[in-house]
Design goal:
535 residues; alpha/beta; Chitobiase, domain 2; TIM Barrel; 2 domains; eight-stranded parallel beta barrel; seven-stranded mixed sheet; 15 helices; 16% strand; globular; binds acetamide
Length: 535
């Protein structure tokens, strides 16, 4: 892919020191004493905010019940989800009930627990019960992910395994550092089916990721049905990079993805990239082109050559229709309008375009998100800019983004030489690109979002996001190989307090995830930087 960035190499990081120290000490926890077979409490990814280990372990047995709040549909849904994870591997019945008994696995919604916020939870494990308390359903769900990781990795298997199924004693109290912990998936360069997207959603949920940014449109394909402009999908979605068949989501399929993501407490952020990255639309409707001539469909990997016609009224009628339909399908707060790599649009035209398009997004009730080039125009009040620069990005460009942040624009950080999951790990990585350098596992984890962009106030940082572009990514196995093991590190940067940040301890917790990925049948890259258990 041709990008304007200077190619830079990621520096090589430290040698492969096998650090055996468990992370519990740094998390303020004593080693678990009562249950040597249990994973020490808090030895999970992302690192919890606070762990106090001690007391008896809880054992899930054939008699265990999952008890949910009387009358709460949300708690019951989370309980059913947990039972779905545990039943195949334990072989236990694990009924989900709303009786008032105090033993078993208990999921409690308590709106008085304001300190836990919209996503936090408290997990307390004793000999008698594991109780997850949260003020909101998302917190219960995240607490369930913590519980999963406290159990042996084979709990993820889809066939019956032998126990014991122990959860170390103690308390985890946990709230996220940032409200935006995103993953982006480019379904335009290569199309991914609903089932492939759902599989990725499940993998993201394990690490408490809460935004799924779908890059729905680009030069190579338009992937969502739009009733008022039907050829966008039927023609503009008919191919992909390399000339394959492509595809698109019907409205029902997109809604199914949104619903599924929501059941895992991820909010879908749809991206309609403009004014560039629009060849699929321009090819579908001649009238969107300044010269009135539709270009051919495009199956290469260049960027920046296409642009909507900024001067034509029909351009804004088109955008109004598309934004209206996408907004109506999307319950989340945000609509991403791209705005990157508009190399065929003059800066003056770009500014004019953004001045016209952002109010359309607001008109349909959504908050604008754009790639950080939006800060070169006038970001709308409340807009969020997604920073995708790298160490080598010019000081002037970084200063422009920082100035917008000082002015109230929120920032989601996706530095390409840290968080881009499509960057190769090293020169031998068979998939991905390398225009932002090689990104090994340590490099993707070892930075601080709160202190990353010079001059940007930390209060402007909404969180982090790990994009996965798909120029040469085609299968779930490809997605997993590039996302794992880097995605959990970015998720941890988004969730865990900065005080827990420590590569030597992180890599031990990360290594322990491999058995879980094996049990889930996931692909991943066995980085030499991580002390994987012997296979
Ligand atoms: C981008 O990578 N063009 C946002």
């Amino acid at each position: 892919m041709v990008r304007k960035h200077p190619r830079s190499r990621a520096p090589l990081f430290g040698s492969l020191l096998l650090v055996v120290a468990a992370g519990a000490a740094a998390l303020g926890a004593a080693p678990a004493t009562a249950a040597p077979a249990a994973t020490p409490l808090g030895q999970i990814v992302p690192a919890p905010a606070k762990v106090v280990a001690g007391g008896s372990a809880y054992e899930i047995t054939a008699r265990t019940r999952i008890r949910v709040d009387d009358g709460s549909r949300d708690a019951r849904r989370v309980g059913d989800y947990l039972a779905g994870v545990l039943r195949p591997s334990t072989g236990y019945r694990l009924p989900v009930t709303d009786d008032a008994a105090r033993d078993g696995i208990r999921l409690e919604l308590d709106t008085k627990e304001k300190g836990l916020g919209g996503e936090g939870y408290r997990l307390t494990s004793t000999g008698r019960s594991v109780t997850i308390v949260a003020a909101a359903p998302a917190g219960l769900f995240h607490g369930v992910q913590t519980l999963r990781q406290q159990l042996p990795a084979k709990v993820e298997a889809d066939s019956r395994q032998s126990g014991p199924w122990l959860v170390a004693g103690g308390t985890v109290e946990d709230t996220p550092r940032y409200g935006w912990r995103g993953a982006h998936l480019d379904v335009a360069r290569h199309f991914f089916t609903v089932d492939q997207v759902k599989r990725y959603i499940d993998e993201l949920a394990l690490y408490k990721v809460n935004k799924l940014h779908l890059h729905l449109t680009d030069d190579q394909g338009w992937r969502l049905a739009v009733d008022s402009w039907p050829k966008l999908a039927t023609y503009g979605g008919s191919t992909q990079v390399g000339g394959g068949a492509g595809g698109y989501y019907t409205k029902a399929q997109y809604k199914d993805i949104v619903r599924y993501a929501s059941s895992r407490y991820l909010e879908v952020v749809p991206e309609i990239d403009m004014p560039s990255h629009t060849n699929a639309a321009l090819a579908s409707y001649a009238e969107l082109n300044c010269d009135g001539v539709a270009p051919p469909l495009y199956t290469g990997t260049d960027v920046g050559f296409s642009t909507l016609c900024v001067d034509k009224d029909i351009t804004y009628k088109f955008i109004d229709d598309v934004v209206r339909e996408v907004a109506a399908l999307t319950p989340g707060k945000y609509l991403h309008i791209g705005g990157d790599e508009a190399h065929s649009t003059s800066q003056e035209d770009y500014n004019t375009f953004m001045d016209k398009v952002q109010p359309i997004v607001a008109k349909y009730g959504k908050t604008v998100v754009g790639w950080h080039q939006l800060t070169g125009a006038a970001p709308a009040k409340g807009a969020v800019a997604q920073y995708w620069g790298l160490d080598g990005t010019s000081a002037a460009e970084k200063a422009q983004v920082a100035a917008a942040a000082k002015n109230g624009t929120g920032l989601v950080l996706s530095p390409a030489d840290r968080t881009y999951l499509d960057m190769k790990y090293n020169k031998d990585t068979p998939l991905g690109l390398s225009w932002a350098g090689y990104v090994e596992v340590r490099r993707s984890y070892d930075w601080d979002p709160g202190n990353y962009l010079p001059g940007a106030p930390s209060s402007a940082i909404r969180g982090v996001e790990a994009p996965l572009w798909s120029e040469n990514i085609r299968t779930s196995s490809d997605i997993e190989y590039m996302a794992f093991p880097r995605l959990p590190g970015v998720a941890e940067l988004g969730w865990s307090p900065a005080s827990t940040h420590d590569w030597d301890m992180y890599k031990v917790r990360l290594a322990a995830q491999a058995e879980r990925w094996d049990a889930l049948g996931m692909n991943y890259y066995r980085s030499p930087q991580v002390p994987w258990p012997a296979t």
